[in-house]
Design goal:
A hairpin with a 2-residue loop joins strand 6 (about 125-135) and strand 7 (about 140-150). The protein has one domain (about 25-150): Immunoglobulin-like. The protein contains 3 helices and 7 strands. By secondary structure, it is α+β, with helices and mostly antiparallel strands. Keywords: Signal. This is LEA type 2 family protein. It comes from Roseihalotalea indica.
Length: about 160
């Protein structure tokens, strides 16, 4: 009889631990903040800002790398892959720096159309699409994101 009770207590304990544990959630991509476009003459532009992720878990996560495809007005202009080792505290935001230099060739634009766009203060749609590699509990997993923003390019 004692052995039966021990077995039931053990099964109940394992069941309670399984119910209490929840699987880790993927961090949410919140968008890009502090985005700046620095026009470098008529030859290109430098885009920088902070990609913001929110960690919804009760444990720390580590952001290992980010692979992102940047598109301007629906045209792919650049692929970026960056390695990081950034720790995100539980239930908090973490920022990842973005710094990209685009040339006229990357933008598929000629000198005249670029000059006209800058003089008119034209808005361009910039899209960031990719994935972030996150590590939690010793396991790594990818988090996809897709974010679009309107940016004014002017001299």
């Amino acid at each position: 009889m004692n052995r039966l009770w021990t077995r039931w207590i053990w099964i109940l304990g394992v069941w309670a631990m399984a119910v209490a544990c929840k699987a880790p959630e993927a961090p949410d991509f919140q968008g890009v903040r502090n985005m700046k476009v620095d026009v470098q003459g008529l030859s290109g532009a430098r885009i920088n800002g902070d990609a913001v992720f929110f960690n919804p878990n009760d444990r720390k996560i580590t952001l290992k790398n980010v692979d992102v495809e940047i598109s301007v007005e629906g045209k792919k202009v650049k692929d970026i892959a960056r390695e990081f080792d950034i720790t995100a505290e539980p239930n908090s935001e973490v920022t990842v720096p973005i710094d990209v230099t685009l040339t006229l060739q990357d933008l598929n634009m000629n000198l005249l159309s670029t000059a006209m766009s800058m003089l008119n203060g034209e808005e361009k749609k910039i899209r960031y699409k990719g994935k972030a590699r996150v590590k939690m509990y010793g396991f790594s997993f990818n988090v996809p994101f897709d974010y679009e923003d309107d940016v004014t390019i002017s001299l």
